[in-house]
Design brief:
The chain has 235 residues and is of the alpha/beta class. The chain is globular. The termini are far apart.
Length: 235
C-alpha cells in the first residue's frame, strides 16, 4: 500500500497530530537517557517525518525505506537529507556503517511474517555500535480494537478476533485518504521472542498514555496505550 502516490501524499502531510503525538512525545527524554553518540539510522523512514524528527534532535541521520514514492517526498521536503532505497534484507546500501541509534517507527507493523521480521532484526542488530540501541516503535495490539483521537476501528469488528501475526485494518482520521491501512498485529510476547532470537536484549518497554492536561481530545488514550516503544541493545 505504501508504493502508492496517494498514500505517500497523505503521509507527507502528516506530522504528529493527536494519537501520533503520544508516539513521539517521550522519545527525546528516552534518547537522552539511553543513547550515546549521534549516528542514527531511521529504518522504514517513509516520507521522512521520523528522519526529520531525529535530525531536529541533533542526530546525524540516514533514512532508508523500500518505497520510492515515499522517498521522493522525503527528498523534496528535506533536500539536504540522506535517503536511501532499501533493496535487500542485508541492507547492502549501508556498506559497513554502524549506528549509535537505530530507530524504527511503525515499520514492523507492516512486515508480515516472523521470518522476515527476524531477518531484519538480526541485520539491524549487526548495524549497532557496541553501545548502540535499537528503538522499535510499534502499534500495540489494543490500537486495533479501540477508538482514538486519530484512528477508528469500529468498522472492523473482526480485529477483536485477530491473533498475533494476523492482518488487521485501521483508518487514519487525520488525513484525507480514508482507505483502511492493513497492518499485522503482533503481541508483546511475540516481539520479545523475536528480540531474543535476533540477539537483542530488552532494555526498556514503554507504553505512553495521554494526559488530561494535553491539548487533545483523547478518546481511549488516557487509559489504553496505543503504542509500545521497545529499547534494545545487542546481547
Amino acid at each position: 500500500v505504501y508504493e502508492d502516490d496517494r498514500r505517500a501524499e497523505a503521509y507527507d502531510q502528516l506530522e504528529f497530530p493527536g494519537t501520533y503525538y503520544l508516539a513521539f512525545r517521550d522519545l527525546p527524554a528516552l534518547f537522552k537517557q539511553h543513547i550515546a553518540g549521534k549516528a542514527a539510522l531511521d529504518f522504514g523512514c517513509g516520507a521522512g517525518r521520523s528522519t526529520r524528527f531525529l535530525k531536529q534532535l541533533g542526530y546525524e541521520t540516514i533514512g532508508i525505506d523500500i518505497a520510492e514514492d515515499m522517498l521522493r517526498r522525503a527528498r523534496t521536503r528535506d533536500p539536504e537529507g540522506s535517503y536511501l532505497l532499501l533493496r535487500d534484507d542485508e541492507m547492502s546500501e549501508l556498506a559497513d556503517q554502524q549506528f549509535d541509534l537505530i530507530f524504527s517507527a511503525f515499520t514492523f507493523d507492516n512486515i508480515p511474517t516472523d521470518k522476515q521480521k527476524l531477518t531484519l532484526f538480526k541485520a539491524l542488530a549487526e548495524r549497532l555500535t557496541p553501545e548502540g540501541k535499537l528503538v522499535n516503535l510499534v502499534s500495540s495490539p489494543e490500537i486495533y480494537t479501540h477508538e482514538w483521537a486519530s484512528f477508528t476501528t469500529k468498522d472492523f469488528p473482526e480485529n477483536k478476533r485477530a491473533q498475533s501475526g494476523d492482518t488487521v485494518k485501521i483508518v487514519m482520521t487525520d488525513v484525507e485518504d480514508k482507505r483502511p491501512v492493513i497492518d499485522v498485529v503482533w503481541s508483546d510476547e511475540a516481539y520479545r521472542d523475536l528480540y531474543t532470537r535476533a540477539g537483542l536484549t530488552l532494555v526498556l518497554r514503554h507504553a505512553p498514555l495521554g494526559h488530561s492536561d494535553e491539548p487533545y481530545h483523547w478518546v481511549s488514550e488516557t487509559t489504553v496505550a496505543p503504542w509500545v516503544i521497545y529499547i534494545l541493545d545487542r546481547a
